[in-house]
Hints:
Alpha-Beta Plaits, 9 helices, 309 residues, alpha+beta, five-stranded mixed beta sheet
Amino acid sequence: MMRKWLLFFVVSCFIGITACSNADSNKADESTSEDRAAAENEQSGFQESNSSNSNSQALNNNQMEEEAASDTESSNTEEMNVSDRKIVYNASLQLETESYSDTVSFIEEQTNQSNGYIVSSNSTSHEEDQKRGSMTVRVPSNKFQPFLQVIEDGDIRVVNQSTSGEDVTEEYVDLESRLEAKKVVEERLLAFMEEADDTENLLNISSDLADVQEEIEQLTGKLNYLDNQASYATVTFSITEKNIEVTNVQDESLSTWERTKEQFTKSINALLSGASGIFIFFVGNAPIFLLIIFVGGLAYWIIRRRLKK
Length: 309
């Protein structure tokens, strides 16, 4: 009886050990499968991430360029000194003068001495040969105030004067930053064009490159315009020639003999003028006078003849 129980116990232990080993083997296989699946998923995710990164590379580059342009703009604005700021100066002066031509010559001379140039000039003549006109000149901004002071100190009456200044520094810095960003895009598009492997991509890149280069030209033109406007101040003149009333001092300065000769000449001229008028009157109206004389004589003869009868 003891042998049977001992045999039953040994068989049970063997069966239990076998079952436990199979369970451990299954768990190990499941763990290995799970690890393998996780590795495959991780590799697939890495490949998808690489594909997504390659597709969004251009967008990220553009964002980086915009951020870099913003950083450049803020740093440039902070570091710019007051003397380096871009300010556009304008002035308008209304002048009155005794000689229009002398005033124009004076303004031209002062403009040349200030290393400036004349933009436009026009004039018109009114009653009694009075002239009016306008001039627009441009002088270097650093000589703007001295130029105005010279005009005010000249032999010219300044009736009205107005000056203004516009700070375009922020606009200028913004355009510079945008230009630098566009140049970066241009360089990358050129690099992409060299690496293009089919016609469609090449055409798309060429179209984008043309748009970027056009924007670069526009930004460059705006920068050049602001440079010119800030480097030279614009001054506009409105010039009016006054009516000059000259007092008659000739009689006071003449000597007695000269005044006598002048009066004698005036008298002769008056007599000649009167005689000439009388002569012209009678000679010009001679036909009428002859007709009147003839009619009057005829009437006188008829009346006298009747009285005799």
